[in-house]
Write a sequence for this structure.
């Protein structure tokens, strides 16, 4: 079974530039997550999709970050404009979680390492 | 106060040692609990779920104390390959599963 795919793996940009990350979840997984992991910290949830609908974006800095999952499969996360503090690894994860059931394992992609200069 | 707190370590232990990690969580509504493992520059992967009755998977034992809001992970007979960061994770079941990660505890096992 193929895992969660992400691209690019690495990105270096200057502050105020824009950047986009792509994620393709495991086939059949309805729930998709984007996390930000700053060096030395645990992953922090940015946004959670159930199919193509957003169910939690409370920690997404909406003035600069946006995400979409138009067809309920792959997803893109965009930062515009980037700040120095956005330097982090951006992890995409998916699960077959169904609301109302017990928690299900999340499978993570390899992440995109973003450096903002 | 952070929702999930862990000692960041690092814990330096020799091969064969037993090591224990602790974690506390602040949200009493948390329903599910996990330990994830993250190797250097890799993605997190589920190590094991944690149940109220305690559970064991080979050399790994996880315990949950809901009254104290405390989770533990015990690793017996440490191997070099156990060197990694161990992330304590809690989930609230308020309609949609949301995982909250601790900062992780780094383990270094030496020969």
């Amino acid at each position: 079974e193929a895992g969660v795919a992400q691209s690019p793996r690495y990105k270096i940009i200057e502050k105020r530039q824009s950047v986009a990350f792509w994620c393709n979840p495991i086939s059949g997984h309805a729930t998709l997550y984007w996390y930000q992991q700053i060096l030395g910290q645990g992953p922090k949830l940015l946004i959670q999709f159930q199919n193509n609908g957003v169910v939690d974006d409370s920690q997404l800095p909406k003035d600069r970050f946006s995400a979409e999952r138009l067809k309920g499969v792959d997803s893109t996360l965009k930062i515009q404009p980037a700040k120095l503090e956005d330097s982090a690894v951006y992890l995409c994860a998916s699960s077959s979680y169904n609301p109302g059931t017990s928690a299900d394992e999340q499978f993570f992609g390899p992440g995109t390492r973003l450096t903002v200069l | 106060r952070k929702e999930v707190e862990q000692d960041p370590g690092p814990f330096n232990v020799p091969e064969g040692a037993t090591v224990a990690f602790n974690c506390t969580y602040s949200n009493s509504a948390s329903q599910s609990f996990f330990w994830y493992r993250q190797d250097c520059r890799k993605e997190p992967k589920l190590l094991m779920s944690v149940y109220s009755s305690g559970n064991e998977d080979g050399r790994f034992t996880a315990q949950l104390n809901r009254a104290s809001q405390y989770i533990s992970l015990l690793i017996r007979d440490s191997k070099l390959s156990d060197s990694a960061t161990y992330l304590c994770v809690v989930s609230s079941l308020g309609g949609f599963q949301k995982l909250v990660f601790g900062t992780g505890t780094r383990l270094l096992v030496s020969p």
